[in-house]
């Protein structure tokens, strides 16, 4: 039987961790389909409420059938897009970085790696699909000159290559990205660092250096202590008031350091990699835990309410963030924007 410790990061077993990791692909698909269905339903509801004439007009069976067939197609396309971006983030791009590190020689005579601008753009596209959609973010990323992206990411790689990241927080490497690059704050910067050093992530043994991505899922699980069977009261504290689904965090370097420490502890205890923790956190958050270690689909009322609450926080109100979303985006990106403005002013 599962207990409150089953998914607690301080007590989760290697066996349970690996079981959840194996459920990542199916959880990605089910979560993506659920999000598309929710969004489609909200759009249809809004459209029907805005047209009184259409509400009073009886719907034909053929029209209802056509609309019913739209959702599966939309969901399948969304899943296909997400899986392609997932493959890019976890396999294609790390392989490209690894290849550059082995063939590109820097000024110091050592191998060097970097990201191209279009790779950074696509990585951020994955980030938005994976978590929070921010319309202005891609525009900010695209505004960075190609050469500046290569230089900043290359400098970050060289800094990490010479540091022991098992014990040393990559603050300097992070600043190398957030300073010159517009649209790159601590969260996005950590994602770039995680890809740049993925070739030494030590997946499966926990001995590689690795850099964790500051994802909402990981922070929610490891730092805010929200997981099935845990303290239900923490769910309310973890999210901002209302139904926007925004985590009650500020995306600061200090918070990222807290996440980095928590990931380091879990890696040391279980011998797992950063990307593996990232995937398991996604499964823990989005309900891929049924049947694991005795957890039945029919859960205790409190557990069911908590788990559904986590999912609903993420899927409800996606289009209603407005000012709050813009404010949070500005906070996360303020370092890069501010320094970029200073640089322009100094020309």
Radius of gyration: 21 Å
In terms of DSSP E residues, the strand content is under 5%
Sheet having the most strands:
none
Overall number of strands: 0
Structural class: mainly alpha
Biased composition (Basic residues): 336-347
Organism: Aspergillus indologenus CBS 114.80
Region (Disordered): 23-76, 295-347
Protein name: DNA glycosylase
Please, could you describe this protein's structure?
The chain is mostly helical and 347 residues long. The chain has one domain. It is 64% helix and 0% strand. It comes from Aspergillus indologenus CBS 114.80.
Features:
347 residues; mainly alpha; 15 helices; 0% strand; globular; disordered C terminus
Task: Offer a concise description of the structure.
With 347 residues, this protein is an all-alpha fold.
Note the topology.
Layout: H1 14-22, H2 24-49, H3 52-56, H4 61-103, H5 117-130, H6 135-142, H7 146-161, H8 171-178, H9 186-196, H10 216-223, H11 233-238, H12 253-270, H13 274-285, H14 301-315, H15 323-345
Helix pairs in contact: 1-13, 2-4, 4-5, 5-6, 7-8, 8-9, 10-12, 10-13
Biased composition (Basic residues): 336-347
Protein name: DNA glycosylase
Region (Disordered): 23-76, 295-347
